[in-house]
Batch of 2 targets.
Target 1
Amino acid sequence: MEFKNITFVKEGKIGIVTLNRPKALNALNSETLRELDSAFDALHADKEILAVIITGEGKAFVAGADISEMKDLNTIEGREFGILGNKVFRKLENMGKPIIAAINGFALGGGCELSMACDIRIASAKAKFGQPESGLGITPGFGGTQRLPRLVGEGMAKELIFTGKIVDAKEALRIGLVNRVVEPEQLMDEVKALANTIAAQAPIAVKLCKTAINRGMQCDIDTGIAYEAEVFGQCFSTDDQKEGMTAFIEKRDKSFKNS
Ligand code: CAA
């Protein structure tokens, strides 16, 4: 698949999407968002891909939505741009595969928001995070007002969003915005190792775990527990449940078929 602003490669069971507009610090214009949309469709459709990594080329993960494209938008166009970004990020968030953000550098505005639509965030020690939109006269537009408080709590999210303050990877770890901070040169190796560990588990179980967690975070606990009971039951209709448990009993390596 050929793209202008991103690259998409497969390494075994892993799909790697790299934002590749380094001269603009990988800023998200609508063309890049549409390319991501197509790449996410392709990742979703590819049954061999069991985990996905999103990263950026150069010194930025993503330095935000493209300010030069947004500058002259009117109300309707601004809303449409926000709807496009949110549609693409929700597609990523709802994809039935684990998504890991390998945050190599600046993750600002739409970049921080892209990382938050991923399931797991691993940051390079060089990464920097923030929602600087209020300094540009706008609100976060690709989910920042919704996902940041869910991740780091309301007070911390409000402080970051109201001030536009940029924080380093250490602070992002302290407030729970990222799972781990690693040395820059180790970032991709660590993230690929994590992706491969996840890809070695039963894929349908991982997918159902993701759905149960995502749904459960948005509803009351009784509804969430009822949903967990549903997906737990569904697992027993899969070949991989039989294989996982039989391999355990027979003390042999398991071989999952994603079925
Ligand atoms: N949009 C468009 N272009 C951008 C950009 C963005 N978000 N971020 C960086 N660039 C461009 C710069 O204009 C510059 O282009 P030129 O070389 O043509 O001048 C190039 O990328 C390199 O940037 P800098 O020279 O500024 O690099 P730096 O190392 O000095 O600074 C930075 C890096 C601190 C990240 C700085 O570029 C910056 O502050 N960028 C903007 C960050 C920002 O405000 N992001 C939020 C955008 S709004 C948003 O995302 C809304 C939403 O929620 C959807």
Note: The mean pLDDT is 97.
Target 2
Amino acid sequence: MKRLGFLVFLVVFLLAFPKAGDAASSSAKIFLDGQQLNLTSGVQVANVNNNILIPIRVVSENLGFKVDWEKSSQSVTVQNSITTVKMVVGSKTADIDGSQVSMNITPVLSGKTTLVPLRFVSSQMGMDVKWNNQEKAVYLSSGSVSDPWFEGEEGSPSVEPDTESPVAPVDPVGPSVPGTPGTLATVDAISFSDNRLMIATSGNVKPNVFKLNAPDRIVIDLPNTAFSEVFGYEHTLNTQNSGELAVTDYPDVSLIRYALFSDSPSTVRVVINLTSPVEYSVSSENDGLVFIDLNAQDSEEPTPPIGTEGKKVVVIDAGHGGSAPGALSVTGKHEKALNLSIALKVEALLKKEKSIDVIMTRSDDSTLSLSDRTKIANNLKSDIFVSIHGNSNTSSSPNGTETYYTRETSTQLANIIHKHLAKATGLKDRGVKYGNLHVTRETKMPAVLLEIGFLSNSKDEAQLFNDDFQNRVAKGIVSGIKEYLKVQ
Ligand code: ZN
């Protein structure tokens, strides 16, 4: 089964549930940590506007949270040792540990019972919530939020499911899909590097960014947006349209979460969980790209937007990363580490250049799809794109340095950069080659992919992880970039 993108998901979701208004009962089953909840007879789970609501009795008896109901104010308080969620019947605003948060559905009174939104309450209480459409079941997991991605057959991004029955294509702006008026932009990719969150969108999006404390968070709301199909393929996006991005190497950031926060108006929300309060700056000048820069705290003066003041924009792409290690060297080292190490050295050198803005597709061990990488460069309208790789062959004999390009407009960059690179590596010069590679093909600016040397060849490999060698290579790449861009 192919991982469902947002629209396909929405259709399936709409088909799976009764229409909004046919609330009263729902056949949805609820599982908690793999065990189906045995609901007391007469207790009904409801569905309103495609949200599952559960009686507060289920919240206390089955989910095990402390629940208080205050009749005079019609307010419900759900509590565990960490979090307190207060909701009022008919109000879309909830209070989470003193912070106001919007819900896309309000708690309701149904007979003598108060119903609260299952997904909202469970996720605010730290549970992971998944919807299994085939079983018409809600799966709650009380453990670590990220666990299901690594255990479930559906969640893992590396799984290529293939048996889902085809779903009729829908017009993404068609009137039959509620909450998606014709002006929706899509959120296509999210990445975090260089202490900066990048959100790629299909059009101009004016983000609404604000801080929450206890715990410290930066919340980015993207009005009139929905996740694109592409997003669903490239990122972990569960059937409740939410997911998370693991962030390592940035002490201020513990986790980044994203979700389709509201259906009406359709709003994607990205939340940066912080370990302490952090200042940030927001820029969305570049069409289709939103930056939340956490480096703002380091300097008094605001950083000018990327590529302004006559600067050339260079995107450096360290190949592979995270769960995609690339080739394995003859001594068991990962290509992703080689690529990153050289890329970071190139970045450091380019940062000294006053007339160049350098953007890294990744500057840590994050997992990034190929289309994330090209999207970053394309949305930034960067001047050049340079992808750094180590080569590999099933035979141990091939060795040397080669440079790839795909489009005609990249040949000059390829020739100039290869001239400097081959000299710097001192390895066998295998020349400039045409290759039909995603990153050099799908980018819109001159783009090259550098194969520094062969990880599968012991002579090359002995050099590749050497610091002096890498410094020399980085200098060579930068000389090529500067010659091509005519930067002094
Ligand atoms: Zn590679």
Note: Confidence is low (pLDDT under 50) at residues 1-25, 144-181.
